[in-house]
Specification:
The longest helix is centred in the N-terminal third of the chain and has 18 residues. The strands form 2 sheets. A 5-stranded mixed sheet has the order 3-2-1-9-10. The chain is of the alpha/beta class. It has a single domain, classed as Purple Acid Phosphatase, chain A, domain 2, CATH 3.60.21. GO terms for molecular function: bis(5'-nucleosyl)-tetraphosphatase (symmetrical) activity; phosphatase activity. InterPro entries: Ap4A_hydrolase, Calcineurin-like_PHP, Metallo-depent_PP-like. This is Serine/threonine protein phosphatase. Pfam families: Metallophos.
């Protein structure tokens, strides 16, 4: 929809060396998609890396969204992340597009449920105890009722409370990206969770250096204005995190091939 009135765009300033801050250390994790096995190993690696690097002020963890769908343990991923907050309180979870659809479906939206079944939601429902036969035999209405009665309210409340974005130092963390040249206070949550080509093809500076998931690449994709860390965990078996402190960047990952 065209906007008749738009506030003055934020200035685009490319930061040659974006700085997260010297008194904080931040780790961001890409799209998990039900791979609880990879997530638990990656969190262990992050904890070990944080300890090895020594005191660095506050250590924060940012999860870029898409916890559910496609992989085998979506329910387990949500349980784990909710428990993780108890011993790693400085954690921010962003809502991905898959959480948006899952939440709508679990609240009774049949259109969202139909769409969910086409984007990996079958695996999510299996993780909540459905069988293959259940999913093949139930009507859409029956499936809706089953989902509404099965998914714990705590999971839905957790998803509802997820953030759309978080700004730390010179870095902006979002699930999918931002709409280029649109001020942050005018960015819509749907864009932050769903945008793709318009964001990925934009090569000019953004006001902040953007760290995102959503769009799968074979490895970390580093550009002058953004960094993509969705390495397709559900399909490739590789889950990736970036570590940030001051102007330093480093990467950690886990894969199917580790012991």
């Amino acid at each position: 929809m065209f906007r008749l009135f738009r506030s003055k765009p934020e200035p685009n300033v490319l930061l040659d060396a974006p700085n997260i801050g010297e008194d904080r250390r931040v780790y961001a994790i890409g799209d998990i998609h039900g791979r609880l096995d990879l997530l638990t190993r990656l969190v262990d690696k992050i904890a070990d890396d944080d300890l090895a690097r020594g005191p660095g002020g506050t250590t924060e963890l940012v999860m870029l969204g898409d916890f559910v769908d496609r992989g085998p343990e979506s329910a387990g991923v949500l349980d784990f992340v909710m428990r993780l907050r108890d011993w790693w309180p400085a954690i921010t979870c962003l809502q991905g597009n898959h959480e948006e659809v899952f939440l709508m479906a679990a609240r009774g939206d049949e259109s969202a449920l139909r769409f969910m079944t086409r984007i990996g939601g079958r695996e999510t429902m299996l993780s909540y105890g459905a069988t293959e036969a259940d999913l093949d035999e139930m009507t859409l209405g029956q499936l809706r009722d089953w989902l509404m009665s099965t998914v714990p309210e705590a999971h839905l409340t957790f998803i509802e409370g997820m953030a759309d974005r978080v700004l730390i130092g010179d870095y902006l963390f979002v699930h999918a990206g931002i709409r280029p040249r649109v001020p942050m206070d005018e960015q819509e949550g749907r864009d932050l969770r769903w945008i793709r080509d318009e964001f990925l093809s934009f090569e000019s500076p953004h006001p902040h250096y953007v760290v995102h998931g959503h769009s799968i690449t074979a490895g970390v994709e580093q550009k002058g204005n953004r960094m993509g860390i969705d390495t397709g965990a559900y399909a490739t078996g590789v889950l990736t995190a970036v570590g940030l402190q001051g102007t330093e960047q480093w990467f950690l990952s886990t894969s199917n091939y580790e012991d």
